[in-house]
Amino acid sequence: WCWFGSLLVALVSPRMAGLRLDFGLLLEPLGFIKVLEWIFSIFAFATCGGFQGETTLLVSCKGVVNKTVTAAFAYPFRLNAVVFSAPDPKLCGGTWTDVHLVGNFSSSAQFFVTLAVLVFLYCIAALVVYIGYKHLYQQNSKFPCTDLAVTVITAFLWLVSTFAWAKALADIKMSTGASIIPGIESCKVPGTTCFASVTSMGTLNVSVVFGMLNMVLWGGNIWFVYKDTNLHNQSNRISQSP
């Protein structure tokens, strides 16, 4: 954001202002990777933030056969607020009591999705600079250095958020699958049996994959951003000097 603010200051300067469109930069590694980062960030927050699922219990007991009890859950996965409600108060002879799912995984999910949204916005700003104001980017050494710092930090945040979300996803699967049945007292009543089924979480698995891809992209992009900084130029001059 400091880089974006510096850009706005530079744009109002009469000496440096001026839009110079150059879409050829999109074919270079710096621009091409930024486009991929932009696209993959969309898939990351869409596959995670747009998920909706449910756990269904098939309850069989004396006098009542194959009644279903459903608990719907979605992003941000505050499962402790989701409850299995009996379809009627006399289910299983009145022995059924409302049961909540266990766990609150909103912090990991929101961290992952928020990072993806911020990256999406940053990529748009960066592409505007690369395509229309490359001359400003090259003339002011602060822009490449700030871009490098943001790239390094973002790569690290993708690493942290992806692994945190992957761990949370594993816990979500445990908290919504068949392993919840032993913890439901109503399913322990003599003559009562419960079978659990849960919505496929394939899209959530895909979100973890896109998190890893973003991590690799941003980590690899560090080198291409570094080449545009004074740090790389200085190292080249030192290596070429006698």
TrEMBL record:
What InterPro entries would the database entry show? Marvel, Synaptophysin/porin
Q: Where are the transmembrane segments?
A: 111-133, 145-166, 206-226
Would the keyword Transcription turn up in this protein's UniProt record? no
Q: Which residues form the MARVEL domain?
A: 25-230
The protein's UniProt keywords, in alphabetical order, are: Glycoprotein, Membrane, Transmembrane, Transmembrane helix
PROSITE patterns for this protein: MARVEL
Name its cellular compartments. Answer: Membrane
Membrane topology listed for this record: Multi-pass membrane protein
The question of whether Membrane is a record keyword is answered with yes
* Pfam families, alphabetized: MARVEL
Q: Name one GO cellular component term.
A: synaptic vesicle membrane
- Which PANTHER family does UniProt cross-reference here? SYNAPTOPHYSIN (PTHR10306), SYNAPTOPHYSIN-LIKE PROTEIN 1 (PTHR10306:SF9)
Family, as annotated: Belongs to the synaptophysin/synaptobrevin family.
Record's protein name: SYPL1 protein
